[in-house]
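Weekly puzzle thread! Below is a chain. First person to post its structure in token form gets bragging rights.
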Amino acid sequence: MPSATRAWYSCSCEHFCETDNHTIIGALTVNSAADGFDAAQAQVEAWPIELDVLRRAFRQIDSVTRSRMEVYLEFNIPRMGRRIDALLLLRSDKPHLLLLEFKVNAKTFDAAAIDQVTDYALEMKNFHEASHGADIYPILVATDSRQTCPGFHLGPDGIAKTVCVGAEGIAGAIKQVVYTPGHVVPAEWAASPYKPTPTIIEAARALYNSHNVEAITRSEGSAINITQTSQSLLRIIEEAKATRRKVIAFVTGVPGAGKTLVGLNVASLKEETDDTHAVFLSGNGPLVKVLQEALARDEVSRTHVTKSAARTRVKAFIQNVHHFRDEGLKSSAPPSEHVAIFDEAQRAWTREMTSDFMRRKKGKPDFNKSEPQFLIECMDRHADWAVIVCLVGGGQEINRGEAGISAWIDAVHTQFPHWHIAVSDKLIDAEYDAGKALERIRHRPAGAGAVTELSNLHLAVSMRSFRAENVSNFVKALLDLDTQTAKADLAVLTAPKDESNPTERYPIRITRDLKAAKQWILQQARGTERPGMLASSKALRLKPFAIDMRNQTDPIHFFLEGKDDPRSSHFLEEVGSEFDVQGLELDFAIVSWDADLRLPEGSRDWSYHDFRGNKWQNVHNPQNRAYMKNAYRVLLTRARQGMVIFVPEGNYPPDDSRRSAYYDGTYAYLKSIGIRELLCATIDKGYGMPAVS
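Winning reply:
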């Protein structure tokens, strides 16, 4: 039979039992080739064994169940770049899915394979629209094992714990699925939209491998389509080239709205051989390192080139902005790229910071330019045309010396008046701190470049969490001490996803017990979902809990290594600071809240402190206070699926640096806005939930 929308082969169970292997394997081979996939010899040899195992299992189940079951072979999971070996759909009151991953000629079940089939179940539940309300049963089959099905433990979200069976255990697993006959239409179910929300690492991999952005994003509610913003930028680039103009464009967006994804998308659409070749530049060192390493590893695994060759190619796509700047210092020639995309452009350095760095590190005592001015100057060296895209976040400045977006606008206004300017219509909002600079360029003199406002250059809704889109709003209200708004946002975040899935949309807990926090987060993360520990870089009195923020965490290991590597976030031993994780994501996070940012009981404002020597010092500088508050804004918006906030009890006497008063007010405030307390937790390999108040 012809391939279904997402599978290389599909048919009814009854038809499958009557069809010979030659016919099915022929269809699998043809459809795999049509998808551009060259089936490896090992795969071709495995198919007959899998088909025989399935046919034998189906003949052991009752005829009624067989008549209500559809079979899908090699079912596509686009975000993972993998296919489910066999997916069985029971036509019932709602979809019941059995996902089978085969390990042919295997007798044992390894942890990575269990995680793999668990990931398939999570993908179907979260991203396949017709499967949101489905009951899903992941099954790992080691064909030479004698393991029978131990019984399914169906979680409250409708995903069962993965079971491991041998070939003869498949029929028993199918028989244990309880369903009510209904009228699910297989063709409609299979054709249902698949709407993933990838992590930035997954998105970079997909775009780098020439997938279009529509295939890896989803559009929900009032979210402005990332594709529209990308297309606006592509039009600006093409028009600049056609009219031989120089243009600087500013893209704004809330944290996690997809600004970086837009930049990566535009860069990926411009081939290196094209004269509109674009480069994605970031001053976020950890982000660049992680993305470069992830793409290089992926390139090696796909093409078998050397790691060195892969890294060289990747660096033409993603670079550290400081390397780009240093190349501009070495030569007065224009850069090879006509299009430069600056991520988190508001973090570029002020004139004072840049001049000091150039004097101390580069031996240039007379350098007197801000980083934005010098970067524009580098692109202005092109004799014909050039485009700069500034991706602008609001309220995330965490380093001293960050110039903000007004430095870019002022540099264009005073030094490069011939440049045209395209701005998001939200750039005037207070959080971008660019209103005064924009006002100065409203009435540019004759001959100066035009200023154009485009609504498509703003991304309004956070897409970091596919479970909840207003995490950023909640965190803003929490940090602004806007209790009523925080309560309302929290109620939406933690509400059940829908009637068929009573689990919380985005669970948030608070606790004073770090062990309980770790146990809770390990319960939440399934498959290869990534948990991790976070804390402010100034959280220096968490050392009694083995959290030493003076130790440097390697973000490559933290974000890329697996469950078997103690350096990875999975072990909950390494701790990421705001500098390590800005722009990157975890699935579930423990945010450890120290006394650097505290809310004294009865106070109406935060109290800011820096630990020096053996005691906390008050921080009075308004800019430094803003950095400290923004550090927590970054930490509290890293988790895609849920988080637990750990606030220590304090220990005074004898430790004067950890007085209970430093922590109690913060904990009371978090509790007052409705965050549920995590009282205790016991690791449960099934789906038992820890106690909450």
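Puzzle host: Confirmed. Bonus trivia for everyone else. Residues 603 and 665 are 8 Å apart (CA to CA).
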